[in-house]
Amino acid sequence: MGDATLKSPGQITKNTPDRNKYTWSAGTQLVDYVSDKGDTLQGALFLPAGYQPGKKYPTVVYYYEKLSQTRHSYVDPNFSGTGWSPTMYTSAGYAVFIPDIVYKLDDPGMSAVWCVLPAVKAAIKTGVIDEEHIGIHGHSWGGYQTAFLSTQTNMFKAAAAGAALTNMVSMYDLIYWNSGGGNMAIFEASQGRFKGAPWENWDAYLRNSPIYHVKKVNTPLLILHNDKDGAVDFTQGIEFYSALRRLKKPVVMVQYKGENHGIAKMENRKDYSVRMMEFFDYHLKGKPAPAWLDKGIDMLKLDEELEERKF
């Protein structure tokens, strides 16, 4: 305890008492890059725990518009409502790369292509990333970027898309159930960045819809979409999943009954966080595929499977 003059301060509290239970990122780097449209941007590269210079690491790329400033954020290794925690991945030996995306009117999907691919190529030059074992993940608007990127490139070994918009035309006329309003403003005055409605701008809406390019998907995809999603209607996940299944593409869809846009129940958060990491471990680290991914789980045995996985 220090005295009133503050000349000999002493620590009396700890805001992260469990910190030493975990392994932590070995540090961060800023990666500068230029988009295919000439925008100067940055991405935050988080080194894995135990990083050894000269060694390349499996990497998960995550994005949501501009997030490079999260380089300085402290993130607990927790079970989030989307299954994503950068700290959990760096702790497990992954590098994590978070590039910025800027958008051009009428091209919200193509903007991700123009920004993310040059960003990843620049990050590979650091020598940290194993270019043969890169995965991508995003949720909601980031899930849309993931679904779209999976139709435009074979750069990534695996992709996990949460609550993704997949058909910009059908999504436009659906309801944003969390508020009770329509989706139109999202497309014309918010993240969609389209000039007008679909019937005034068919080409832009179609070329930026993952479903429109579904035949080009080769990347193994894990889709999360909950049946009570009040932001991105459940039918968006079903449309993309059904089309991929019809085309015999490598896809698995997970849903948690009664859950909204993000996962609220802790048991479901834990379940999905672990499944997503198992998915990436299989594709990016070469670990054995879990039974649910390799062979699937019989519906009659699903309750038993969920009970066994509880922790």
- Return Rg in Å: 21 Å
Strand content: 15-25%
| Overall geometric form | globular
Broad structural category: alpha/beta
- Name of the top-level CATH class: Alpha Beta
Helix content: 25-40%
Poorly predicted parts: none
Number of helices: 10
CATH homology-level superfamily: Alpha/Beta hydrolase fold, catalytic domain
What is the string of SSEs from the N terminus onward? Answer: EEEHEHEHEHEEHHEHEHHH
Secondary structure tally: strands: 10
- The side-by-side strand order for the widest beta sheet comes to 1-2-4-3-5-6-9-10
CATH topology: Rossmann fold
Mean pLDDT: 96
Number of domains: 1
CATH architecture level-2 label: 3-Layer(aba) Sandwich
